[in-house]
Design goal:
Layout: H1 3-19, H2 25-45, H3 50-66, H4 76-91, H5 93-116, H6 120-125, H7 127-138, H8 151-171, H9 178-200, H10 204-237, H11 244-261, H12 263-276, H13 284-319
Length: 320
């Protein structure tokens, strides 16, 4: 591997380790192993380069940190969502893109299938749900299902289910990434057929204004959970310069951080579904404001903000 490519593949990780110190012994040990692996590779192929010198200094710093007794910083919890998780999004942006592409394709398949097979929606959503929705449409309240349960109980049930689904989607990635793709397939097919069903009833725009109040955050989180599963599976399939076991451990840790990191987003989505979506007659401007804000937040936090941090860290690293 040529040195520029080696640096490009690993610079985000090196910058993260340098700019975001940790007192967690397990994390320090993991970082030290990864950096020494990279250092060994650099010494073998680029023994006199600045990259090797840089990695040697970084490894020395980590070595010293391991043997120092430090108290954990009080802001560790905040640092995770402010820096660590966004930088993971940057590091694994390809997996995020792949999960997004897979999901969109599966949604399209679901919509096309529902269009050409009138029984497809019943197959995917179930007869009971379709019959109930048809009855609600006849009564002039097509989204009455969101009003059928107590707000608090609905919120708790949905939050628990959303987190469970995201974790299952992540863990399934251990099956060579195929497991996570399967869950993206299931959810994509369901969403595509579900959305087409309302468009076929002349309720397409209304369904977007109502359902996507919570769906924007919920669906985005499912795609991110799918990406976490790809991180896990791909770490085993494509270990790069690491041993397969070391790569798998790294992928499992990073994937779990991503899967756990989206839990607050899923909780907010459940809050919207339990307490807000039920107000189906809210003004259009309010609905558009909520779903637009949710969409902009996802784009900012998953794409724009991570790139901004990455550029800042790289700039600081180049100065050093």
């Amino acid at each position: 591997m040529r040195e520029p490519l080696f640096v490009k593949q690993n610079s985000a990780k090196w910058s993260r380790y340098e700019q975001l110190p940790t007192d967690d012994p397990d994390e320090l040990a993991d970082r030290f192993i990864q950096i020494t692996d990279d250092l060994a590779y650099a010494k073998t192929f680029y023994p006199k380069s600045k990259t090797t010198t840089y990695l040697n200094g970084l490894a020395a710093g980590l070595h010293q940190s391991i043997y120092k007794n430090k108290t954990e910083k009080s802001n560790r919890f905040l640092t995770f969502w402010k820096y660590e998780l966004p930088l993971l999004f940057k590091t694994y942006q390809k997996q995020l893109l792949y999960a997004f592409i897979f999901f969109i394709i599966f949604c399209a398949i679901g919509a096309v299938s529902a269009r050409y097979d009138e029984n497809f929606v019943r197959l995917i959503m179930g007869n009971e749900y379709v019959d109930m929705t048809n009855a609600n449409i006849a009564k002039g309240d097509p989204f009455g299902v969101y009003k059928s349960r107590d707000e608090a109980l609905m919120f708790l049930a949905i939050a628990g289910n959303n987190i469970y689904v995201s974790l299952v989607t992540f863990v399934s990635g251990i099956i060579f990434s195929v497991g996570s793709v399967y869950f993206l397939f299931r959810n994509g097919i369901m969403l595509g057929s579900f959305q087409y069903y309302f468009f076929s009833k002349g309720l397409g725009v209304k369904s977007i204004l109502v359902i996507w109040i919570h769906g924007t955050l919920e669906i985005s989180s499912i795609m991110i959970a799918g990406a976490a599963g790809l991180i896990l599976g791909n770490s085993f399939l494509f270990p790069k310069t690491y041993t397969r076991l070391a790569s798998l451990k790294r992928g499992a840790k990073d994937g779990m951080k991503v899967a756990i990191g989206i839990a607050p987003i899923l909780v907010v989505a459940a809050f919207f579904e339990g307490f807000v979506t039920r107000h189906t007659e809210m003004p259009v401007w309010l609905s558009v404001t909520i779903l637009s804000a949710s969409f902009l937040f996802i784009v900012w936090y998953v794409i724009i903000y991570p790139n901004k941090i990455y550029k800042t860290l790289n700039h600081n690293a180049s100065k050093n």
